[in-house]
Structures are given as C-alpha cells and as structure tokens.
C-alpha cells in the first residue's frame, strides 16, 4: 500500500514528528545532556518506522517536497542571525583557541575522509559525504550538498550525508557549542538557547 501525502499533510506530519522529538528530549535526560536536537530525535524514530513499514510491505510513504527548498533557504538565511560580536568577544582567549581547533578539525576531516576513500578505492566525493559536510554542517548542510554531489554522479549522496551526520550528531557545531557553554552554565535551557539580540 502506497501512502501519498500532499504538501499540507507532509508539513503537518513534520510538525508532529518535531513535537515528538521535543517531547522525548524533555523527558529523556540522556538526549538533553548530549544536546541531541529534537528534529533529529523525532526524525530518526520516524525514519525507523517508515523503514519497517517499507521492508515488511505494510506501507510505502511518498512525501511532497515542495516546501523543502523553501525551508532550507530560510534555514541557511537565518543561521547568521545568531551571530553576536559581543558574545564572541566575551569568550576571550578560549574562544580563539576553540576557533583554531575547529578550523584544523574541519580541514583534517576532509583530508582523512578523502584519504580513506582513495585507500579503499572509492570515489573521493563519497569520502566528502562523510567529511566536514555532515560532521560540521549537520543535517541542513547534508541535505543541501547531497543533491549537488548526486549531480556529480554520486548515487545516494544525500542519504549517505544524512546518515553520517545522524550517526555523529554530537559533532555538529550547534551541539558542540551547546555542550561547551553548558560546562560553565547552571541552566541547560540557558546554555542551549541563543542569546537575545542586543538592542
């Protein structure tokens, strides 16, 4: 049985999955402790559910992705809104050291990924699917660059990028920053909430 969802139904289901992730994150301390995002929690559970339905032949889901590009553009546009020079300056020397370490890790991830791909006689672009694209960019970047890599002939690049970032969610920048800030914060909510815009 094939279940086809239109744009509105797909959006409604996405909201429900997001709410499920948020609900579980608030009640499972381990998820909150490691700053696992609510969309990832709900999304992984829903992915497992749809996979079981597909494998067992119970149902196959088809979603309308009309809003996908719109939402991704909104996401990447709004990422910079959290930038705040005042907060960056307050980090002092530790922030500069952290920035330097992150830059080195980003470059190292790509060299390691491409190097292992060559060693295993795999296309280097497949290596990039497990490099800094998913590890640093997270799910949004994985979803954006996956189709680009598929245009270069890497079949299933989006799935590979998404799988890589899901397996290593704690390495994404927001999660790392959240954990870093938590170490000196008494409030989990305050640690993982962006600072208010300065007037």
Radius of gyration: 19 Å
Helical percentage = over 70%
Shape: globular
Largest sheet, strands/sense/barrel: 2 strands, parallel
The first-to-last residue Cα distance is: 55 Å
Strand-residue proportion: under 5%
Overall mean pLDDT = 79
**Count of runs of 4 or more consecutive helical residues:** 10
Question: What is the tally of beta strands?
Answer: 2
Low-confidence stretches: 185-199
Instruction: Give me the strand/helix succession.
Output: EHHHEHHHHHHH
What strand line-up does the widest sheet have? 1-2
Q: Give the class from helix and strand content and strand pairing.
A: mainly alpha
Give a concise summary:
By secondary structure, the protein is mainly alpha-helical. Helices cover 73% and strands 4% of the residues.
Q: What attributes does this structure have?
A:
199 residues; mainly alpha; two-stranded parallel sheet; 10 helices; disordered C terminus
Please explain how this structure is put together.
This protein has 199 residues and is mainly alpha-helical. 73% of the residues lie in helices and 4% in strands. The protein contains 10 helices and 2 strands; from the N terminus they run E-H-H-H-E-H-H-H-H-H-H-H. It has helices at residues 7-27, 29-33, 38-56, 66-79, 85-119, 124-128, 132-151, 157-167, 173-182, 188-192; strands spanning 2-5, 60-63. The chain has a two-stranded parallel sheet. Helix 1 (7-27) crosses helix 3 and helix 7 runs antiparallel to helix 8 (157-167). It starts with a strand and ends in a 7-residue tail after the last helix.
